[in-house]
Amino acid sequence: MIRLSNLILQRGPQRLLDGAELTLHAGHKAGLIGANGAGKSSLFALLRGELTPDGGDCQLPPDWRIAHMRQEVDSLDRLAVDYVLDGDQHLRQIQQQLAQAEAAHDGSAIARLHTELDNADGYTADARARKLLAGLGFASEQMDRPVGDFSGGWRMRLNLAQALMCPSDLLLLDEPTNHLDLDAILWLEDWLKSYAGTLLLISHDRDFLDAVVDHVAHVEQRKLTLYRGGYSAFERTRAERMAQQQQAYEKQQAQRAHMEDFIRRFKAKATKARQAQSRIKALERLEELAPAHVDSPFDFRFREADKVSSPLLDLDEGRLGYGDKAVLGPVKLQLSPGARIGLLGPNGAGKSTLIKTLAGELAPLGGRLTQGENLVIGYFAQHQLDALDPKASPLLHLQRIAANEREQTLRDFLGGFDFRGARCDEAVDNFSGGEKARLALALIAWEKPNLLLLDEPTNHLDLEMRLALTLALQDFEGAVLVVSHDRHLLKSTTDEFLLVAEGQVVPFEGDLDDYARWLVDFRSRQAQAQVAAGSTEGADRTDKRAQRQAAAALRQQLAPHKREADKLEKALGKLHEKLATLETRLGDSALYEAARKDELRQLLAEQAELKVREGELEEAWLMALERLEVLQAQLEQAT
């Protein structure tokens, strides 16, 4: 287990933790949450051995293997798949020793190392690495490109894949969803649910936390408080605790009154669409949980627009893309005041292309885009953070667009975004990504937009700021079109979805659960199309010599996959025998007597562990059989 006792942790003069206590048992999956700068990343550094406690104790099992997601990339020439495989250092050591033994023609060492390679699942390593990359959104051809070819966000995905590739007892993930789209987040959720080790996760994505973790460790006032359950359970428990504090009463009542009024107004005009009903439920949950956030430093609204046009924007028969390459089209879309639209679709389908076109950053390749006479767009995209003047302060940024406004009014407005006192006058180049995102949102909110175009607005924002943005969007009277991997934001602020896929933009009749099922079906169809394309290419070959070479190569690939499938089937058979024996023992009524409760608890824990392992083995076995079928089909085509 992980045990922190009376822990003191400092960074320079700042004390991050003071007398903190925490116990995490093996197999727990815990979310680590708290305000930016509270010490979450420093705690990770402590667990990795990069920092030492300034007081108290930090104890971990000495034999635990620790994997973490690195923040830097230093192997730009490595192929992506090889970079991911480097995450399994033990495997790489075996492969290196095997190469040396083969060069020395040491038969005994070669035999021993092949056994070690088999025990380390080395024959399946390349396939497992490619599966990780596919899950994180990499196309097949990208897997064999150098790391240096990828942008910063995609390099972070490679670092995540490398961490997942590493066999570990403790997995430390710091904001793993920051550079992922919704497709990749859903895949990562499933992967982490089946992870057998102990997980400690820093994230500001509440739905992701709810789906993955079974405990939440909250860093607050230099202490650590452990809550059982996911983020929603943490909110409920903390709401109950905060509601009992008398000094919070007035703010709670004001927040509750605001939420009740908003829900009444919204229900009166809500449609019967599934997503609209999902939004009502999300609002009602927020009303109940408002007390958990009474100490939030954020409180802002988007200023009300002076005038409104109807429609705000009208795109007719639009062909959208870059240069002479169309990504979407024809697209017909009209945005009216009050519209609440979320964009869904696989990575690379064209969601950002659509938003950039509507924002005027991209000209349509064809069709007609008409703007309303009184249209005022508030456009948020990640590149706008880089457009901030690094030498200017938040106050100066706001003064440049509000030259005639009183300074105190501007300072009060910035205070709602937690820029207070001296922080209002500091240069932006010292700001974190989250602070820059807050400032960009503040500048948009001041301009009185009647249409918000938001492309991943929650990147870099912590949980409290995400909630404040959600409340501000709910109160916003204008139209909203948003792309986000934050499902809670989508559930709480949108009434309908548009699906961007396969060159089209069409209404999506469903909610996010329906979209998750659509994604599974979409990926399945893509995989089938790739297999069919590969088969067609094989059938078209006319060079007999090339056919024989291809068949030989396929047979060579087939052998380790056959060994892997047989090995997994054998392991599954042994596991079924163990489960049958265990279930026979659990069928003994005497086991349930009070005197044997420890024995019962141990057997139930063992059963749960075996069930998890059974699911993993069955999935791996089915995948191995599927790969065998594909390779055998390709072999038949080649011969």
From TrEMBL:
Recorded GO MF terms: ATP binding
Keyword field contains Ribonucleoprotein: no
Residue ranges of domain ABC transporter in the record: 2-246, 300-527
Coiled coil: 551-620
Keywords from the named record: ATP-binding, Coiled coil, Nucleotide-binding, Repeat
Highest taxon listed in the record's lineage: Bacteria
Protein's name in the database: ATP-binding cassette domain-containing protein
Native organism: Stutzerimonas tarimensis
